[in-house]
Design a protein that fits this description.
Blueprint (H helix, E strand, L loop, with lengths): L18 E2 L10 H13 L10 H20 L8 E4 L2 H16 L5 E5 L8 H10 L2 E5 L9 H7 L4 E7 L11 H10 L3 E5 L11 H4 L3 E5 L10 E5 L1 H5 L11 E4 L4 E3 L13 H17 L1 H19 L5 E4 L10 E6 L4 H10 L2 E2 L1 E3 L4 H7 L4 E5 L6 H17 L5
Helix pairs in contact: 1-9, 2-9, 3-4, 11-13
Length: 405
């Protein structure tokens, strides 16, 4: 087994013995990330791009170095294709309102899926209402895979954009993004990928992925909150209008008009998340010091162990596939007669932290026929000990509610 147990010491919040199984919502931060941000804030902080003094130049260099580091991490050939945002949600809204409002109108169609997080669904609902475009959805089959035959049938020249998750935050399933992108491009459609769950766990190459836009968040990959990334193919970014107006994103302004700065700065209005960019840089360094292949192997090994152990818990149902080739390190579960929030509360009493609810995916919950699930998600600091605590807590909950008796 891939042994990363030594990494747990790098995460101070875990020193209190908590079994943290909610990295799918937000990951913990290692000491190198915390120290990088603290050192920068104490010694090098100033606003970026606008200052001619040495401190501002140094701060600008650090901010732009983070952009270059992130570009390399995801295989982008041009750092200008990396736009820093407040998070994956803002990145997806930038595409919806910056690209969608410019290119959609009555008679056009948007294709999303039944498995999307609200962040890659609600913005397209809003844009559809504003533009008169129609929003349609790729269904999920009973095998928990997107129905690619139905997708091909829905495609046509009136489809302008396809919005799809890179990895479901509920089921852990991995849609074939390259296949989806290639099919969309036959009809001239753009593809936007919500990669908030994908990038923290997989070695991602945006060129190989084949999409036009991709969004992800720092806080799910060991970095701080308050910063995310929109990657866009340069020609796709050139088709996109700024989502926000203000300082920094302009080339010139008169009382009645404005022209935009060069990409990516036109999409980064106002003072950006400077300290957070330094933290994201450090998070990428930390992940690459482990090796993304090792990160993934560790996640999947723990997932396999957990799936095997969970199958013996009375009254427990796993939502999603059990084949590791079809899923990432996320497991959603339901227990007969026990609400997901009750499960989470009982587990919390035993020091196990996991998510419960609809996971910002209400349409998927309805498709699964459940109101909510409890979700365990794994990352580099988790061990088999965390799984043992999870299993013990679930068995205790079942006994309290008389499941299987």
């Amino acid at each position: 087994m891939t042994d990363l147990s030594h990494l747990k010491a790098d995460f101070p919040v875990l020193a209190n013995g908590v079994h943290f199984l909610d990295s799918g919502a937000s990951s913990q931060k290692p000491i190198p990330v915390l120290e990088a941000m603290d050192h920068f804030a104490r010694t090098s902080y100033a606003n970026v791009h606008r200052g001619a003094y040495k401190l501002s130049v140094a701060s600008t260099d650090a901010y732009e170095a983070a952009r270059e580091r992130v570009a390399g991490f995801i295989g982008a050939t041009d750092p200008r294709e990396v736009v820093f945002t407040r998070g994956a949600t803002t990145a997806l809204n930038t595409v919806a309102f910056g690209w969608g409002l410019e290119h959609l109108g009555p008679g056009d169609r948007i294709l999303s899926t039944e498995i999307e997080h609200h962040a890659n669904l609600v913005p397209w609902q809003m844009v559809a209402k504003r533009t008169g475009a129609t929003l349609d959805h790729i269904p999920m089959g009973d095998d928990f895979r997107l129905d690619l035959a139905a997708y091909e049938e829905k495609l046509g020249p009136d489809v302008k954009i396809v919005a799809v998750t890179g990895m479901s935050n509920v089921l852990g399933i991995l849609p074939p993004i390259r296949v989806i992108s290639d099919l969309a491009h036959r009809y001239g459609a753009r593809v936007v990928v919500d990669a908030a769950q994908l990038v923290p766990h997989y070695s991602v190459d945006v060129e190989a992925l084949g999409a036009d836009f991709m969004a992800f968040s720092s806080h799910k990959m060991l970095g701080p909150t308050g910063i995310g990334v929109l990657w866009g193919r340069m020609e796709a970014l050139e088709e996109t209008e700024p989502f926000e107006g203000g300082g920094e994103m302009i080339s010139d302004v008169t009382l009645h008009d404005a022209t935009w700065a060069e990409i990516p700065h036109r999409f980064e209005a106002g003072t950006p998340p400077i300290i957070e960019a330094v933290g994201l840089h450090a998070a990428v360094d930390y992940l690459e010091s482990i090796g993304m292949d090792q990160v993934l192997a560790h996640d999947l090994e723990l997932t396999g162990i957990a799936l095997d152990r969970l199958s013996d818990v009375p009254g427990l149902q796993i939502q999603g596939p059990t084949n590791l080739e079809d899923r990432g390190g996320v497991i959603s579960m339901s227990m007969d007669g026990v609400h997901a929030h009750d499960l989470a509360t009982i587990l919390d009493e035993g020091g196990v932290a996991l998510r419960s609810g609809h996971h910002c995916a209400k349409p998927l919950m309805r498709r699964l026929g459940v109101a909510a699930t409890a979700r365990a998600s794994f990352y580099v600091y988790n061990t088999e000990e965390d799984i043992e605590a999870l299993i013990g807590g679930l068995r205790q909950a079942g006994e309290l509610f008389g499941v299987g008796s």
